[in-house]
Amino acid sequence: MNRERVAGLIRELLIELGEDPEREGLQRTPERAAKAWEYLSSGYSRNIDEVINGAVFESEANNMIIVRDIEVYSLCEHHMLPFYGKVHIGYIARDKVLGVSKLARIADVFARRLQIQERLTRQIAREIMDSTNAEGVGVVMEAKHLCMMMRGVEKQNSVMTTSSVLGSFHNDEATRLEFLQLISKKLD
Predict the structure, then answer these.
(1) Care to name a GO molecular-function term for this sequence (predicted)?
(2) Is the per-residue pLDDT at 188 higher than 60?
(3) All domains of the chain in start order, with CATH
């Protein structure tokens, strides 16, 4: 991303909004906002293989592996407003497992792009399936969308839930139900 060009565009936007980009509070806003946009859209410049960084390990595990409540922050591609929430990821390994932090990192790579929640959920599931050759993968995401909260219908308490199930999570009802039950449990 050309940060200087983006800062210039943000300066133009401030003027179009009726602001004075030279007033004290806004003098460095174009540069700060450009830097923020670079971070918020960093998923475009990340290489998923570099993110995983070889952290796919041989394992005899063939049980369900779940990480719940991974925070995600993304930007709605329709209004460029944030949506945020939690993603729950589960998979059944065949002979390979991912380093546990890589699940969160995979979610972040795809979340740091202009997105719709439905696609984001599917991209996470597909990458885990492809990276591990898992028997099955399940991903459930719950998120609040500022495009629904701050504008439009202005519904403050709405939560969108999406799921993507692949392999045995799709084909076997018992596997899918086990996953859904485990992610809904609050363990002490």
Answers:
(1) zinc ion binding
(2) no
(3) 3-43 (1.10.286.10), 55-184 (3.30.1130.10)
